[in-house]
Design brief:
heterodimer; A: about 625 residues; mainly alpha; Cytochrome C Oxidase, Chain A; two-stranded antiparallel ribbon; 19 helices; 2 strands; globular; B: about 210 residues; Four Helix Bundle (Hemerythrin (Met), subunit A); about 75% helix; binds protoporphyrin IX containing FE; binds copper (II) ion; copper (chain A); Cyt_c_oxase-like_su1_sf (chain A); Cyt_c_Oxase_su1_BS (chain A)
């Protein structure tokens, strides 16, 4: 079974089949990158449409109903279908390498997680073609969502349910991978910060996503099966949705932000040529943020009427998060301090991130003051706040990570000049778009309104904001050009183009499918750097050359996810016509059938023989 | 470890479910999964507690619930948890036949529980006209208890599938983790039921 060199010369069909069935974390990472990038572009186009509608007072570029669909799908797409999968792309590409593992703990589930996400994402967008996408905001508050006509919100519910299952599976997979699969010597307190943040983010996924799962089920039952959870006429209570959504929703923002912090920690340390300042404090702050992230959800509900006691508690808890976040900011600054700093594209993003995110944190503390939030809530001030943290902390990190790990994933370095151009266009565009929105909000412009009136002091600000948005679009186009240019040129690089510190740079770029021929012996924080300072070229192996166990490819994850996708249509359309239940049963039958096959069919993987490994080394 | 060592081990270790890396991974992953399931049921319980008085003028929990049937159901499920412990005990002693027998008893008790639950729901729906659409209380009741019932169904199918699949070839290092996880899942379902019994039924009639 050990077909080693065959990967190079394959037809299109064989390559496609390879990716449809792969369980290799590196290939799954590439699929996450492509799919997440695709949805990022879709979400970006929606954002541009929103900004174009708001470019002048009383504009009529889109109708009010379509505007609602645009803002809903923009938020939902960006959070669930762009940011999450792109984070997963880097977790897949990097975490197993950073801990010295040959794959994740559950390669099959890894592939299942990806396909569930992809089919869920497609499901969410099907609404566009069947009479209107979801239009109740990405937060889908009841009763707006439960009474929204058409199937848009149904697609939102089913789509998120399917992709959410994929995310949960991914989270569990990374938890076990990091606990069980570390190379000899890779103790917890030697793990690179990106791995640490991936670990904590996975724990947050595990404990936050089920709340969303339940919320979505309740909404599905309300909308499709006549239940009355959120319907006061049946004794229901619409605030339950808000609680469930935000019990998930606030941890979610840290699920995104923490790995972003991790990416920047790697980059700042690598290009300052220093170990991360205050590593222990960084780990501690990461865990603390993860923990506190569960205590603050109701700061999104200050104006719901929970009463002064609850509001105060949640306000104080929220402000407390600023402390570990501040610790991190200072540690990054101290890492830079006295380092021999090299400014290239990834580093530029990191340097841009620090002030941007700090601003977002400061407005965060402002909106956390419950009494003041009665003014800020549902205005553009909040829109500015969360874009400063999410774009500044997450999207910047994704751009940085793309430039930083591109060589590891594809074996080529993205052009630095174009990279810097992307940064400046995006960075300036970002601040033009969102800085002014603080003031628009303070002047009373509500969020989610499709028009505003002339001469209320909002005209100029909105115009500037729209210009900024198009600059960000331009920056993204430059990145795409960069990717095409780099791929066409196809200049291969060494395994360690940045003279970096962590294990992923100790192996070739892109790595062989088994990652490490011999598992490395880790002898300190920044293991590769430790070896370099002692004059060695690479890692010392921790084991003799032996056979390597590898998992088999499988087509089941794809079919399983397809089954749920099909069932989703049955769930939705049975509300009009019960014969659609057949579709539901067929879809569920496919999925459950695949699960049964998976359970009863032995799948023990195969071995790469050490003779083949030796032969390969000689070639 | 080679394929042969896993499928036909010459020597069975005391913890066959954790003897391979795959087994260890599954063991830990499943505990994490149960952590997520805990949040799932906690959310459902929270919803139920918020809505259990919202009867919208329809049947209330005092009118509906009786403790006799629920007591039988509780006994069936608690006993089935015990029998699955016996099964795992025999697994660790590599007594495959005995393990299968105790698993069989577990399944039988689980089916008994399921039968009672179906009877109960049937009674509420046709006898009392109390459905998911009657009130927010109805929605919350059927969702919470139904989710648990769904877990029971899945657990039964899982255990049965494992029993049939491995009936002829016996225990090895590949299927031991599978049996072990299924029994963990069964315990979890049992624990959830204890909470349902307390929160839904006991507190509902008192
Ligand atoms: C110092 C840390 C932070 C504090 C104190 C804070 C506080 C708050 C508060 C109180 C709100 C509610 C405002 C309102 O609706 O009136 C809010 C909204 C929001 N925050 Fe933060 N936040 C912080 C960091 C973050 C981070 C790191 C992210 C994401 C990476 C984030 C994402 C969001 C989002 C998405 C919303 C708006 C959700 C919506 O209504 O659509 N925040 N924040
Ligand atoms: Cu929040």
């Amino acid at each position: 079974m050990s077909t080693m060199v065959a990967t190079n010369k394959k037809g299109l069909g064989a390559t496609l089949w390879d990716y449809l069935t792969t369980v290799d974390h590196k290939k799954i990472a590439i699929m996450y990158l492509i799919a997440g990038g695709f949805f990022f572009i879709i979400g970006g186009l929606e954002a541009l449409a929103i900004r174009w509608q708001l470019v002048q007072p009383m504009n009529d570029f889109v109708s009010s109903g379509f505007y609602n669909e645009l803002i809903t799908m923009h938020g939902t797409t960006m959070i669930f279908l762009a940011a999450m999968p792109l984070i997963f792309a880097f977790m897949n590409a990097v975490v197993p390498l950073q801990i010295g593992a040959r794959d994740v703990a559950f390669p099959f589930l890894n592939s299942l997680g990806f396909w569930l996400f992809l089919f869920g994402g497609i499901m969410l967008n099907v609404g566009w073609f069947t009479g209107g996408a979801a239009d109740a905001g990405w937060t889908a508050y009841a009763p707006l969502s439960t009474t929204s006509i058409g199937e848009g919100v149904d697609y939102y519910v089913l789509g998120l349910q399917i992709s959410g299952a994929g995310t949960l599976i991914g989270g569990i997979n990374f938890l076990v991978t990091i606990v069980n699969m570390r190379a000899p010597g890779m103790t917890y307190m030697r793990m690179p910060l990106f791995t640490w943040t991936a670990f904590v983010a996975s724990a947050l996924i595990l404990f936050a996503f089920p709340a969303l799962t339940v919320g979505l089920f309740l909404m599905m039952f309300d909308r499709l099966f006549g239940a009355g959870f959120f319907d006061p006429a049946m004794g229901g209570n619409s605030v339950i949705w808000q609680h469930l959504f935000w019990i998930f929703g606030h941890p979610e923002v840290y699920i995104l932000a923490l790995p972003g912090f991790g990416i920047f920690s790697e980059i700042i340390s690598t290009f300052s040529k220093k170990r991360l300042f205050g590593y222990t404090a960084m780990v501690f702050a990461t865990v603390l943020i993860g923990f506190l992230g569960f205590m603050v959800w109701a700061h999104h509900m200050f104006t719901v009427g929970m009463g002064p006691a609850a509001n105060s508690i949640f306000a104080v808890a929220t402000m407390a998060i600023a402390v570990p976040t501040g610790i991190k900011i200072f540690n990054w600054l101290f890492t830079l301090w006295g380092g021999s700093i090299q400014i290239n594209t990834p580093m530029l993003w990191a340097l841009g991130f620090i002030p941007t995110f700090t601003l977002g944190g400061m407005t965060g503390v402002m909106v956390a003051a419950a009494s003041a939030d009665f003014q800020y809530h549902d205005t553009y001030f909040v829109v500015a706040h969360f874009h400063y943290v999410i774009v500044g902390g997450v999207v910047f990190a994704l751009f940085a990570g793309t430039h930083y790990w591109w060589p590891k994933m594809f074996g080529t370095v993205l052009d630095d000049k174009l990279g810097k151009l992307t940064f400046w266009l995006f960075f300036i565009g970002f601040h033009l778009t969102f800085f002014i929105q603080h003031f628009l909000g303070l002047m009373g412009m509500p969020r989610r309104y499709w028009v505003y009136m002339e001469n209320q002091g909002l005209d100029l600000g909105n115009m500037i904001s729209t210009i900024g948005a198009f600059l960000m679009g331009l920056g993204t186009i430059v990145l795409l050009i960069n990717i095409i240019k780099t791929s066409v040129k196809n200049e291969k690089v060494s395994g360690d183009p940045w003279d970096a510190r962590t294990l992923e740079w100790a192996i070739p770029s892109p790595p062989p499918f088994y990652n490490f021929k011999q598992l490395p012996l880790v002898r300190g924080l920044d293991p590769l750097w430790v070896e370099k300072t002692e004059g060695r070229k690479g890692m010392t192996p921790a084991e003799p050359l032996t056979d390597i166990h590898m998992p088999n490819n499988s087509f089941l994850p794809f079919v399983m996810s397809l089954g749920l996708f099909i069932a989703g249509f049955g769930f939705i359309y049975q509300k009009h016509d019960l014969s659609w239940l057949i579709v539901l049963f067929i879809g569920m039958g496919i999925t459950l059938g695949c699960m049964l096959v998976r359970s009863v069919k032995d799948d023990l993987g195969y071995h790469v023989h050490k003779e083949d490994l030796k032969k390969e080394a000689e070639e | 470890m080679s394929e042969q060592d896993i499928l036909n081990p010459k020597h069975m270790p005391h913890d066959p479910e954790k003897a391979t890396l795959e087994g260890k991974n599954k063991f830990m992953g499943f505990w994490f999964f149960l952590g997520g399931e805990t949040v799932l049921f906690a959310s459902l319980f929270g919803t139920y507690l918020a809505l259990n008085d919202s009867t919208n003028g329809g049947s209330s929990s005092e009118e509906l619930f009786g403790l006799e049937l629920v007591f039988i159901m509780t006994m069936l499920l608690l006993t089935s948890s015990l029998t699955s412990v016996y099964a795992m005990y025999h697994m660790k002693n590599h007594a495959f036949k005995k393990m299968q027998i105790w698993l069989g008893i577990t399944v039988a008790l689980g089916l008994g529980f399921l039968g009672c639950e179906i009877y109960e729901f049937y009674h509420y729906i046709h006898g009392e006209h109390f459905t998911m659409r009657s009130s927010a209380f109805g929605s919350a009741f059927y969702t919470l208890v139904g989710f648990h019932g769904g877990h029971v169904v899945f657990g039964l199918l899982w255990i049965i599938a494992l029993m049939i699949r491995n009936a002829r070839r016996g225990l090895n290092l590949y299927n031991a983790p599978k049996f072990y996880l299924a029994s963990l899942y069964w315990h979890f379902i049992d624990v959830v039921w204890v909470f349902i019994f307390t929160v839904v039924y006991l507190m509902g009639v008192l």
